[in-house]
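TASK: fixed-backbone design
INPUT:
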């Protein structure tokens, strides 16, 4: 029977060291594999997120282009609307001037008034804003009268309250008329005054004498 020598503590320590080295190598290999796997997954996740961001950026760019096109179209529409409003205002002014000229020439053709120094051929009052009214008047001098009429023009707003007529008179203004004369301007009424009609009066300066008068509803001709 052969006898085995008892292993010394040095040999046992060597064996334990080999085992530890093998286990450490396996652990390091596992860690390295895990790191490589984690990095691959991280790269895949980053690539996926980058692709999603690119898709979102493309969608945002497309939406921005659509908004820019809509804004440009809206701007064109607003410009066209402003141009139409301007054309309408010009057409209304042309119509008013044509109507004024027609009234004037009709007056020249039909009148032969030797008794009155002046008369109204046109009388218009139109709303121009809150409490603001625009007036247009055409005054014609009578036949065979003095070379020039020198008098005053007074504008009055007429209101009705409980069936009674109240008068809001504007300050008189001096006027001169030779053959015919147009008068145009704005008048401001006191707050709360809602006119039912307007009245224009031509008279002699510094007197209450009336030589000609016209009365019109707001917006009337």
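OUTPUT:
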């Amino acid at each position: 029977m052969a006898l085995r020598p008892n292993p010394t503590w040095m040999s046992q320590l060597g064996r334990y060291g080999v085992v530890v080295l093998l286990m450490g190598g396996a652990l390091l290999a596992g860690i390295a594999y895990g790191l490589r796997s984690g990095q691959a997954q991280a790269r895949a996740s980053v690539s996926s997120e980058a692709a999603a961001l690119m898709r979102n950026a493309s969608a945002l760019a497309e939406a921005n282009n659509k908004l820019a096109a809509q804004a440009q179209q809206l701007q064109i529409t607003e410009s066209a609307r402003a141009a139409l409003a301007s054309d309408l205002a010009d057409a209304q002014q042309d119509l008013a001037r044509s109507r004024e000229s027609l009234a004037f020439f009709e007056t020249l053709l039909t009148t032969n008034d030797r008794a009155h120094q002046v008369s109204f051929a046109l009388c218009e009052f139109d709303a121009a804003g809150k409490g603001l009214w625009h007036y247009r008047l055409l005054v014609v001098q009578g036949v065979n009268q003095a070379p020039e009429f020198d008098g005053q023009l007074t504008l009055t707003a007429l209101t009705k309250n409980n069936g009674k007529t109240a008068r809001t008179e504007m300050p008189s203004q001096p006027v001169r008329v030779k053959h015919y004369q147009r008068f145009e301007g704005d008048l401001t009424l006191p707050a709360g005054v809602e006119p039912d009609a307007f009245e224009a009066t031509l008279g002699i300066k510094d007197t209450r004498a009336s030589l000609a008068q016209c009365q019109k509803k707001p917006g009337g001709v």
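COMMENT: The mean pLDDT is 76.
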